[in-house]
């Protein structure tokens, strides 16, 4: 069994039918430029409203020229945490790990332990849903399991829109701007991220009407 220690987490409250997101670009210097660096977390109801979709994006600000060589780190586990009873402790987790150019998604499963240290499921390659990592510029490869789970891993255009320059002007104490521009300038336009996506039937997430969910990256110890 392999232990993974917490590096970074982003949290968001999810209510069925609502699209919620959290984003954290640039300001994590300890992990910046690696697949430990979470840039975005999205959770929303699927096109099939019986499903929930979880998306974690990592290693942001990739230029098109750098994206082809960008790769997930085998020593970093991405872990989606799901609290379905409101106590802010994960009741279920989805563990995501890369091996030999494939991404394995295990879960939702009850974790062996909660908190900052996680144990990777020893049967991840057998029990998980796997998918070949989609190369840059190619059509997305989707993996599917018999219990209705769909998964994806690979580079995507950064979906987050933020006018960072205007934000700086608003914070300027000497001559502050009063608002953002409409539509503004997307600071992240033309940059890419490495993305992992899992669509899960709601019945696999418990019986609660709402869940609290967050994502973490954890480094192999």
Measured by DSSP, the beta-strand proportion falls in 35-45%
Cα radius of gyration in angstroms: 18 Å
SSE pattern: EEEEHEEEEHEEEHEE
Low-confidence stretches: 15-19
Total discrete domains: 1
User: What's the overall average pLDDT, rounded?
Assistant: 83
- Shape, principal axes of CA atoms: globular
Strand order in space, largest sheet: 8-1-13-5-6-7-9
Question: How many extended strands?
Answer: 13
**Could you say which structural class the secondary elements and strand pairing correspond to?**
mainly beta
Note the total helix count.
3
Largest sheet properties: 7 strands, antiparallel
* Residues in helix, %: under 10%
- Report how far apart the termini are: 11 Å
Q: What does this protein look like?
A:
The protein is mostly beta strands. The chain has one domain (3-159, 191-220). 7% of the residues lie in helices and 45% in strands. The protein has three helices and 13 strands, in the order ββββαββββαβββαββ. It has helices at residues 64-67, 124-127, 164-171, and strands spanning 3-15, 20-23, 38-45, 51-62, 76-83, 92-99, 102-109, 117-119, 129-132, 143-144, 150-157, 192-201, 210-220. It has a seven-stranded antiparallel sheet with strand order 8-1-13-5-6-7-9. The chain has a six-stranded antiparallel sheet with strand order 2-3-4-12-11-10. Residues 15-19 have low confidence and may be disordered.
